[in-house]
Design a protein that fits this description.
Helix 1 (53-62) packs across helix 2 (65-71). The chain is built from six helices and four strands; from the N terminus they run ββββαααααα. By secondary structure, it is of the alpha+beta class. It starts with 12 loop residues before the first strand and ends in a 13-residue tail after the last helix. The chain has helices at 53-62, 65-71, 79-91, 102-105, 107-114, 117-124, and strands spanning 13-18, 24-29, 33-40, 45-52. It is elongated and about 60 Å long. The strands form two sheets. It has a two-stranded antiparallel sheet with strand order 1-2.
Length: 137
Amino acid sequence: MSRRCELTLKGPQVGHKVSHSNHKTKRRFLPNLVNVTFLSDALGRGVRMRVCTNAVKSVDHRGGFDAYLIKAKESELSQKAVLLKRAIQKKTPEAEAAPVSVVEAAPAAWGCCLGDQADYRILKRPDRKIRPFCVGV
C-alpha cells in the first residue's frame, strides 16, 4: 500500500531534521493519511478511500464527494478516483452543465442579504453570479 493520497496525490517528502547544533540528518515527511468512507449521492453508496486530512477538508469545502470529483481535474486524481468521477458523470449528466446562480436559485435568500444592491447588480452584469453576504439564511 503506497503512502499517497487518492484524491490530492500528496505523497512523502524528504527534508532535514535539524538539531540544536545545526547538524542536518535526512528524514521523511509522510502525509497524514486516514481511511474514510465518502457517501456518493449519485452512485447511492459509500466509497472507501485512503486520503489525507487536507483532502477531507477540501471535499467538505466543495460541497461533498460528488461535487469535489466533478470539479477536480483528472490529472490530479488517482486511477480509482478517475473511474469514480466518470461513473458519477454518467449518472448525473446535468453535473457538467453550468452552475445556477444564487439569484436564480433562491431569490428570498439573496434579497434579505443584498437588499437594494441586488437589483442594481443584476442589471449591471446579468451573467455574473451574486453571492449573499450572510450564509445562514
